[in-house]
Every structure is written in structure tokens, then in C-alpha cells.
Amino acid sequence: MALSLASLFGAAFIAATLFPFNSEVLFVGLQVTDMAPIWVLVAVASVGNTLGTFVNYWMGLRLEGAGAHRWMRLSEDQFARAQGWWDRWGFWSLLLSWLPVLDLTTVIAGAMRMPLLPFALIVGLAKTLRYVGLAAITAGVFG
Fold first, then answer.
1. 41-97 pLDDT per residue, tens
2. Which of 88, 16, 12, 23 is CA-nearest to residue 59?
3. Contacts of 97 (CB under 8 A, 6+ apart)
4. Is 114 left (phi over 0), alpha (psi -120 to 50) or beta?
5. 95 Cβ partners below 8 Å, 6+ apart?
6. Which of 7, 13, 109, 120 is most deeply packed, by most CB within 10 A?
């Protein structure tokens, strides 16, 4: 069981980064085989997936620290407008960070210097709700 949970943690961690990876198949497989209690699967996957987003956050910090907006050909004015949008909507956009394409919002959060604690809380909530939803769907289909 420990190896299965470690594999789930690793898969969820990698899936949260910008690498194309999938943790759902392993999660569902472990759930339908009753490898561990569902709350354990949700906890392990959620923690792994949330911690994986810290890699993206760190990348955003490093990119902006290197002046990335300048080499992406964003003027200071355009970057200031993007910062204004982020200040208004960015926190709430992280509720969608569980969607594969919107993982990029976690990189942007780092680039916009979002404080780490609110970042961790909102992303952790989104990632946990993702696995709770997946577990509920799986239980309805296979239960």
C-alpha cells in the first residue's frame, strides 16, 4: 500500500507542474481496487498536487525576477495592466488551477508575487475539491 500511495503522491505532484502528466488514472485505479480508504487517497493526491504547484510558483518568481516581461516583449505599461488584472481577479482564477490548461495561473501567481500563504490555501482548496469530485464520480460509476 505504501508504494501505491507514494506513486499517487508522485503522479499528483508531477501532474501539477507544467509537465504533461496525468494522476487521475492512478487515483481511480487505487480507488476501485480499495487499495486505501478514499479519504487517504484524496489527502495524498491533494497534498502532492498542491505541492507540485509550488514548482510553478517558483518558476514564476524566477521568471519575473529575471525580467521575463521584458523579453516576452511586454512593455512596462502592459505589465502594469496585467498586474492590475491579477490584483483584481488573479486570486479567484486560482480556483480553476485544477484544470490542466489553467495550471499556468500558478506560474503567473509567482510572477505577480502573490503571497505564498493565500496561494497555498486557494490552490489547496481547488486541488482537494478536484479529487473529491473525481472520487465521487468514480464511486457513482463503479460503486
1. 999 999 999 999 999 999 888 876 666 555 555 667 777 787 888 888 888 999 999
2. 16
3. 53, 103, 105, 106, 123, 126, 127
4. beta
5. 122, 125, 126
6. 109
